[in-house]
Amino acid sequence: MSIAHGPPHDLRAGDRVLPTSSRCLVMGVVNVTPDSFSEQGAHASTEAAVAHALALAAEGADLLDVGGESTRPGAAYVDLPVELGRVLPVVERLAALTDVPISIDTRKAAVARAALDRGARLVNDVSAGRDDPDLLTVAAEARAPVVLMHMQGTPATMQDDPCYADVVAEVEAFLAGRCAAASAAGVARDAIVVDPGIGFGKRDEHNYALLAALPRLTRLGHPVLVGTSRKGFIGRALGGAPLDERVEGTAATVVWSVERGARIVRVHDVRQMVRTVRMTEALMAGAGAAATTAQGRAR
Fold first, then answer.
1. CB 195, CB 225: distance < 8 Å
2. Comparing C-alpha atoms, which of 200, 210, 220, 224 is closest to residue 167?
3. What is the DSSP letter of 125?
4. Which of 54, 109, 150, 298, by CA, is between 20 and 30 Å from 239?
5. Distance CA 106, CA 99 (A)
6. pTM for the structure as a whole
């Protein structure tokens, strides 16, 4: 099997360059919600969220993804004032306490604008700019990268009955269309990230098909973000493993994703996944060097 390579360019976030051309970045999840999928509200307060984020930074996170609206299956919409009240104090304090770039996980342009004004550098939108088209303009004006994710339906409905004729082709076409929309809004080419949306309006077979097709998605020309961390399909593959027993399963999906071209992985267990990513990249580099040496000897 040939090893997939990432895009030929780095990701530009204002005056910062994120080295997506040379390695896979690890994004740590910071959920400031009472009903988060994984932490079950453990970091819902500002103090707890900031402490958790700083711990993830110390464990080697390249990015910190702060969100104030749960997007787990069945999650309800969060009103703007509530979401602002959850995330802005966290973003502001983190911007003062760490150099690790902060991502704001939101579907709302107003939240994105306020968070970017307070020190966030990226926008991670599970709706890919469909829920609030102004979000793309906000990102463009701030020169902030934007993650465009595929989701069938909304968090409240996405797992009701996911259905595709060809999930890979449909997700690829959707992401290409949203990249075009971002470009039309003024987002620079080197500020776009695509995400196939593992678990967002997908059955297990859809998730596996998309993970297998990651090299195809890299041909869109933008860094690919993959978020599999602790998700339900991992628990089911491991015989019903609960959330806190999915680290090894997550690691397997991270290895698979990095080898096939992912340039950002979004994870909860940062220390373990940083080591997983670095070891995977060492194996890929070593295998590549060995193949080059063997070819040279054969000539």
1. yes
2. 210
3. E
4. 150
5. 21
6. 0.92
Q: Domain limits at 16?
A: 11-293
Catalytic residues: 231, 266
* E strand spans, the chain: 11-13, 16-18, 25-31, 63-67, 102-105, 122-125, 146-149, 192-195, 225-226, 264-267
204 - beta bridge partners? none
Q: Please report the pLDDT score of residue 2 as a whole number.
A: 42
Q: How many residues does the chain have?
A: 299
Asked if the structure places residue 80 within a domain, the reply is: yes
Residue 264 domain-assigned (yes or no): yes
| CATH label of the domain that carries residue 103 | 3.20.20.20
Q: What are phi and psi of 38, to 5 degrees?
A: -105, -45
Q: How many CA atoms lie within 13 A of 265 on its CB side?
A: 35
Helix, coil or strand: residue 270: helix
233 phi and psi angles, rounded to 5 deg:
-65, -30
Cα separation, 204 vs 206, in Å, equals 5
Residue 3, pLDDT score: 47
Q: How many domains does the chain have?
A: 1
Place of tokens 């465009």: 148
- Please indicate, yes or no, if residue 299 is contained in any of the structural domains: no
* Confidence at residue 7, expressed as pLDDT on a 0 to 100 scale: 63
**What average pLDDT values come out for the chain (299 residues) when binned by 10 residues?**
60 92 97 69 82 98 96 82 97 98 98 98 97 97 98 78 94 98 97 97 97 97 97 97 97 98 98 98 89 76
Q: In 10 A of CB 92, how many CB atoms?
A: 19
Tell me which residue has tokens 């991992």. Answer: 234
CA Rg value for the chain: 18
User: What is the C-alpha separation between 149 and 224, in angstroms, rounded?
Assistant: 10
Distance CA 198, CA 167 (A): 11
> Tokens representing 23?
């390695």
State the pLDDT at residue 160. 78
